[in-house]
Amino acid sequence: MAEEKVNKVNKLVDQVAELTVVELSDLVNKLQEKLGVSAMPTPQVAAAAPAGQVAAESETSGGNQTVVLTSPGANKIAVIKALREINQSLSLMDAKGMTEQVPTEVLKDAKPEDVKAASDKLKAAGATVELK
Fold first, then answer.
1. Cα–Cα distance between 58 and 89 in angstroms, integer?
2. Short-list 98, 107, 90, 93, CA closest to 72
3. Contact yes or no for 68/123 (Cβ under 8 A)
């Protein structure tokens, strides 16, 4: 019986690991609604790596990128909707604030496929984005 629980948990972990960042955000929101809880951000202390090492790692791994909104374009409403689709935890006011305070990071250190999806959504809404 304990082995069945371990297998069930392992299967669930594998399924969650396959989700994109946007899908994970949606999952978290739905779990919060269903369970009646809210996630409180906790301060995290990260060990600093030498600057040259970080740059070398990101170049060799083809790794994570950051999406920066540089201009919301003419249709701010569409861009606000796109921002909220990308990050579903953003309130309407937060998304509006992001369009008014450019340049601003939309996704930070995201996987290449998530960066492409976010960039495409924002560009389709009329925004100008930069990938770093």
1. 27
2. 98
3. no
Note the Cα 37 to chain centre separation in Å. 21
For the beta sheet containing 65-71, the strands, ordered from the edge strand earlier in sequence to the opposite edge, are: 104-110, 65-71, 128-131
Taking the C-alpha atoms of residue 131 and residue 65, their distance in angstroms, rounded to an integer, is 7
Note the pLDDT tens digit of each residue in 20-39: 888 888 888 888 888 877 66
Q: So what CATH class is 63-131?
A: alpha beta
* Structure token digits, residue 16: 């969650």
Backbone phi, then psi, for 49, in 5-degree steps? -100, 155
Where does the chain hold its CATH 3.30.1390.10 domain(s)?
Answer: 63-131
Is the CB of residue 73 less than 8 Å from the CB of residue 127? yes
8 A C-beta contact, residue 99 and residue 72: yes
Q: Report angle CA 93, 123, 90 to the nearest 5 degrees.
A: 25
**E-strand stretches of the chain:** 65-71, 104-110, 128-131
Q: Which tens digit of pLDDT belongs to each residue from 58-93?
A: 443 457 888 899 988 888 889 999 999 988 888 888
